[in-house]
Specification:
The chain has 99 residues and is mainly beta. It is 12% helix and 47% strand.
Length: 99
């Protein structure tokens, strides 16, 4: 909550969102474990998440999908943990993006 309140509101003043994600393939399967999060301007917080997790925020299409969002005024923070098949996900990925 404090990250969204302090960092998110500060970034929303500059119309910026920052996203970070890490993904690793589970050995001997087609599944990946992805941990991702973003904070910043409400309209930009979801698009800065990794592209292979588009549409997975708040969905139930994987073995494990734990998502969380917090909105405070113009700022939003998201957190995403996904374990399951994610088409387009590389074997190992570190995703950093700012818009």
């Amino acid at each position: 909550m404090l990250v969204v309140l302090i960092v998110g509101l500060l970034l929303s003043l500059f119309n910026i969102a920052i996203g970070v994600g890490v993904s690793v393939r589970v050995p001997f399967t087609q599944s990946n474990l992805t941990l991702a999060g973003s904070v910043g301007q409400k309209d930009k917080a979801v698009p800065v998440l990794p592209g292979y997790d588009a549409g997975r925020l708040g969905s139930n299409q994987n073995f494990i999908n734990q998502t969380s969002t917090l909105t405070i005024g113009p700022a939003e923070g998201t957190a995403l943990i996904v374990l399951g098949k994610q088409p387009g996900a590389p074997i190992v990925d570190l995703h950093l993006e700012a818009r």
